[in-house]
Amino acid sequence: MTDLLTVLATLKRPRLLISAARLGVGQYRRELHLARHLDTSALPDSAAALAELIEIEAELDAARRARRADYAVARHVDVMIAIMGEARLVRAALAPQAPAQGLQPAPVPVT
Question: What is the DSSP string of 17-51?
């Protein structure tokens, strides 16, 4: 999973594309938006979804760079929103779990 996050960290995309995606990621809802991009009825886990989204985005970026007539900036932004949303879920899964609110770890006795 960290390899996917490394790939994302090295992506170089236009600032406007990234800014637009950042504005939309707050409204990202996995159940609603992910099925639009992946050809599957059952949603995969976040790491698998992220891998597929990265491939889709690479194709979109190639179309953008080639200035192909079938390139759709709105779709590219939408895929970037999904990538950012899934990356947040992957990062959250990798983060150590914090203790429940109001609970403190047990003190270690000193001998």
Answer: HHHHHHHHGGG--HHHHHHHHSS-SSPPPHHHHHH
Cα-based angle 34, 40, 46 (whole degrees, multiple of 5): 45
C-alpha count within 13 angstroms, C-beta hemisphere, residue 56: 21
**Spatial CA neighbour of 1 closest among 93, 79, 80, 83:** 93
Confidence of residue 75 (pLDDT cuts 50, 70, 90): very high
Write the DSSP symbol of residue 70.
T
Summarize pLDDT for 8-45 with one digit per residue, the tens: 788 899 999 999 999 999 999 988 888 888 877 788 88
Closest CA to 24 of 82, 102, 101: 82
